[in-house]
Amino acid sequence: MDLQNLELEILEVGQNPPTGIKPPPRKPKWDDTLAYIADPERFCRENFQKYGPIFQTSIFGGTTILVGSAKANQMVFNGDLKYTEIALPATTMEMFGEYSLFQRPDLHRQRKTALRPGLTGSMLKRYLPEIDRTVCNGIKNWQNQSKIALYPEVEAICFDILVPILLGINFDNGDLEGLPISSKSELKQLYGTFFDGFYGLIKWKSPLTAYGRGIAARAKLIELMQGVINKRRQQEEKIDPTKDFLGMMLASLQENPEGVFSDRLIENQCLLQLWASLYENAGLDCSVIYQLGRYPQYIETLRKEQTANKNNLSLEILKEMIFLEAVIKETLRTLPPSSTANRKLTKSVILEGILYQKDWVIIAEPRIAHNLPEHFQTPEKFNPNRFLPNSKEGKMYEFIPFGGGVHACLGAQIAMTITKIFIARFLNAFDWNLNGEAKFVNFPLKKIKQEYQISIASRC
Predict the structure, then answer these.
(1) Total structural domains in the chain?
(2) Among 150, 184, 272, 371, which is most exposed with the fewest C-beta within 10 angstroms?
(3) What's the pLDDT score for residue 1?
(4) How many other CB atoms sit within 10 Å of the CB of residue 61?
(5) 163: domain range?
(6) CA atoms of 186 and 321, how far apart (whole Å)
(7) The pairing of beta strand 361-364 with beta strand 64-67
(8) How far is CA 72 from CA 10, 24, 158, 273, 426, in A?
């Protein structure tokens, strides 16, 4: 399915739509933003049941259309520089920073192409032993515990994985010495504050607002990255591009000072990549453990799949863990971490008899797409088999946990790799039981609440 085969009509300025064309159903309501933030899943489910997979809202002000059908998702993902532009809340855009991928749509593809090698291919293969070592050391600390607070424990391990890979900071080597942030706990706390500021509703730079605190944390984190970059240059006359994500960018800048990268872009991208990867990974790992606790009939199949190779997790072996990948994808389908990026229509368009007006915002919403019976049979059931190779489910534009098009998640491949390693090691190390039904933080990213615990027993 591509744009050439999409029956999309783009209206020019002043052109009236043909007779019989209608806007999406439902009238925007004054409290849509509050209802959506409180529980996006319920908001999408209730309106989907009443109006279908495309409907109007007033989320984040103005008219915002939530869509879930494959063709509508395709329209959303592929309109950049043709009939859409990025349209995140003003607070979020400022938190992303001037040099984020979102701020320059004309440079987005070029920058993303330059960044991708640092998170895929040979670099991902280079990271894998360290990811595995950190996961094994982290869960080893749980051996003598009978219960763990799931999200905080998993997040701590993900933080230890991602900071060296993305920021080039090794806590064991004393890399924070002489820098503005002097400890791992301070860095982690600042990241939490930074994250909370992304969807602050009030653009007021005050310690009294989440946005104000987030902006202050962002300034400190940028100062840290400036120190890390200066330190790296002093230590390495010729930067090693294979060491980490930061090194890849610095080496490219060193080789071509007039190219894609600049110090400002590098500082900013390191922060944003850790922001996106940390909370997405921690949330996903916890959700997989939780879903397997709810559906333990799949655990033995997973353990059999990896028995022969459990002591040697290469990228090739991870690719062979087909059922594990299916379980992760089914978790992403049933507990998608977030909506996709908002797009604003720069022109009015017509698709399948529906008019999407210029200046409206459209969002491809996984909570709708992943529950459409025409996309997934019996979507209410947790069934990893739907993602096995011979299945016809999970097609492009129907399964959209990482978005799509030019703004598809840059870190999707490394996120899946980390989750595979984490779940594989956890399955071999522990049996576990859930302590009741988990409650979730639902916005801006879905994650199990801090206080939720599971019971564990070592298998060693």
Answers:
(1) 1
(2) 184
(3) 44
(4) 12
(5) 3-458
(6) 37
(7) parallel
(8) 14, 12, 34, 28, 38
Residue 152: CB atoms within 10 Å? 14
Query: Is the pTM of the predicted complex or chain greater than 0.90?
Result: yes
Residue 433 structure tokens = 């039981």
Q: What is the pLDDT of residues 411-420, one digit of tens each?
A: 999 999 999 9
Contacts of 161 (CB under 8 A, 6+ apart): 130, 131, 134, 135, 281, 418
pLDDT at residue 257 above 90? yes
- The confidence band for 405, taking pLDDT boundaries of 50, 70 and 90, is confident
Rounded to the nearest angstrom, the gap between the alpha carbon of residue 289 and the centroid of all alpha carbons in its chain is 18
Nearest to 285 by CA among 131, 102, 119: 131
Query: What mean pLDDT is predicted for residues 70-82?
Result: 93
Is residue 453 helix, strand or coil? Answer: strand
Q: For residue 376, give Cα distances in angstroms to 69, 290, 394.
A: 12, 22, 7
Whether residue 208 has pLDDT greater than 50: yes
Which CATH number characterizes residue 320's domain? Answer: 1.10.630.10
Bigger pLDDT: 458 or 313? 458
DSSP state of 437: P
Q: Which helix (H) or strand (E) element contains residue 344?
A: strand 343-345
